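Bug #2210: token dump truncated for Dopamine beta-hydroxylase?
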Amino acid sequence: MQTLGPRRRWPGLPCPSAREAASMYGTAVAVFLVILVAALQGSAPPESPFTYHIPLNPEETLELSWNVNYTQETVNFQLLVRKLQAGVLFGMSDRGEPENADLVVLWTDGDRAYFGYEPIVTAGNEALVHHMEIFQCSATYESFPHFNGPCDSKMKPERLSYCRHVLAAWALGAKAFYYPEEVGLPFGGQGSSRYLRLEVHYHNPLNTQGRRDSSGIRLYYTRSLRRYDAGIMELGLVYTPVMAIPPREPAFTLTGYCTDKCTQLALPPSGIHIFASQLHTHLTGRQVVTVLARDGQEREVVNRDTHYSPHFQEIRMLKKVVTVHQGDVLITSCTYNTEDRQLATVGGFGIEEEMCVNYVHYYPQTQLELCKSTMDAGFLQKYFHLVNSFDSMNICTCPQTSIPQQFASVPWNAFNRDVLKALYGFAPISMHCNKSSAVRFQGEWNLQPLPKITSTLRGPARHCPASRAQRPSGPTVVNVTRGRG
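Reproduced locally. Full output below:
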């Protein structure tokens, strides 16, 4: 199999000797490569259009060939891989280091699993890189356009919306993550896309200029498939400005649902088993919890952090594996503190906006990639109309006015705060019960009622009981005298 990449002009190319051409392998900074890949079981084809050849390993199972096209001023490369079993990372660098190198990742059509990953943050940028995610694209399309820019850019190709299958997620404070011995996350094989999307989210409050970043995530894989194929599922709230926190709030809670309707449709009859979890918010998050409910009653906590810090978002192996059956409900609640803000904080991708997410690691893998909710947008417009009528305000509810602009016009008195909080507690929701292709499971998901919960779990017990020491009945007099020296 051969794959061709685009070509780049190499201006002013001199006429090299064979020895000089061979040295181009290690000095290809300004050279664009056309890499032809072939997985061979025997020898190379008898007729090769490539003039120069060199083995890359002692076993001679990797062979690099190239030629020079003086007319088009390009260098063409071919990498021959004999008995490819796992994968190949082919790179070129003028310094022999992976940083800033031209890299191409190749793997076979055979099934493989990776069992761990760790962050690789560019030195000096540790305070700027907030979180990273690797998504695998849908196999629906044979190719995906290249793009390097903001996640919410209007120039981002629409097809990248089909790159939503989470392979790895890391956030500030997390260390390397390794799956249990019997579990691995599969990739490759029939029906698996060759394209990945890397998202790197930054926090740069000082607006530092001139920084370059090449951070990413390193995956560890095994040739031996493990007993269970794992999956990663997003729980919580959809990234939308419909969900907002008023300013100057010491503790305002928003809740996202993975409803019984979605789990009934998307989970296998035997259910799934959650063994790890990563809670995630942006800067105003203070508490996050996900609980499992069954038959209208909260049964157990999946993960809870009552002293959450957005600067320490570790992936936690659960002390007890949580089994989720068809028809169960997963409820994720985030509590925020906006006492230092003057405007409402809306949901979104920006670091000054907010998220409420729990990335749960589970097995066996299913098609369910994302199970999140948001309040129906129509009820939010009713809220803005209500504020206008009670406060004689002029919040524009016209289509050209964005939701963040509307929230910025709200006078945040006690009435408006309480009404918004109550609205989030009873208004119908829009469910995102999505596959990794970013397509929802078949069904009606808009204007869905909130799950009915009749019994809730008690909050966590205090770890520091009140002191039983007797307090003095009156003030204690302390005499302080200056000693003689």
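Output looks complete on our side. Helices lie at 18-23, 260-266, 377-391, 403-408, 414-426. Marking as cannot-reproduce; reopen if the truncation happens again.
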